[in-house]
Design brief:
mainly alpha, 10 helices, about 80% helix
Length: about 210
């Protein structure tokens, strides 16, 4: 059980820490101190549900019904392109941030809806947590498999809370307008790169 738990933490952590749309969003909101606790909780809960679904064997739905993946790919790419465009536009209007007045700049409702969209519209969430982690968990017996999933969930919780609240340490840097310019362009590049990766298989089919 201990081995499965540690392996779950390692595999789950390696998948979660990778630079992606969700992490870029959490980082920016953490720097702004805009609802870091609800965002960290929501991201952790989403991962926990998806990891549990994968460990319990629901990953077969995605592999057997590719329409789910296709819909998520197009919906996710559309949202990421839009979000990236907004970040790029903001980068040309750089402003320093007064951290005392920036807290909760977005409404809680906006923060929650954006977190849901940027998480659930990303097919990689389902492929990494439900399909990949679910597949890896099958090497363990049924009673031990749950410990593997628990390890992955704990890793996710540690990461999102560390990122969400640790980002505020960068606050003094982002009082400078130029720092926000670079961050917004990095976010734009991240969002558009992921959107391109989602759409590339369909483009290659059209061009073939």
């Amino acid at each position: 059980m201990q081995t499965a738990f540690i392996q779950g933490m390692g595999v789950g952590g390696s998948l979660i820490v990778a630079v992606g749309a969700q992490n870029a969003f959490v980082l920016k909101q953490g720097i702004r101190r805009s609802h870091p606790l609800p965002i960290a909780i929501l991201c952790s809960l989403i991962d926990a549900v998806m990891i549990s679904a994968g460990v319990l064997g629901l990953g077969h739905l995605i592999t057997e019904f590719p329409l789910i993946k296709h819909l998520a790919s197009f919906g996710g790419a559309t949202f990421l392109i839009w979000y990236g465009a907004n970040a790029l536009r903001s980068s040309f209007q750089p402003q320093g941030m007064d951290l005392d007045h920036a807290k909760g700049a977005d409404s809680l409702r906006t923060a929650i809806l954006t977190t849901l969209a940027i998480s659930l519209l990303n097919p990689h969430l389902y492929l990494d947590t439900v399909v990949l982690l679910g597949s890896i968990s099958t090497q363990f017996a049924d009673n031990v498999r749950l410990w593997f999933g628990a390890g992955a969930i704990v890793s996710s919780i540690i990461w999102f809370f560390s990122l969400s609240f640790g980002a505020r340490l960068l606050g003094p840097v982002f009082e400078k307008p130029q720092a926000w310019c670079y961050l917004d362009r990095f976010i734009c590049l991240t969002m558009w790169t992921i959107a391109a990766a989602l759409l590339w298989p369909y483009l290659t089919l059209l061009l073939a």
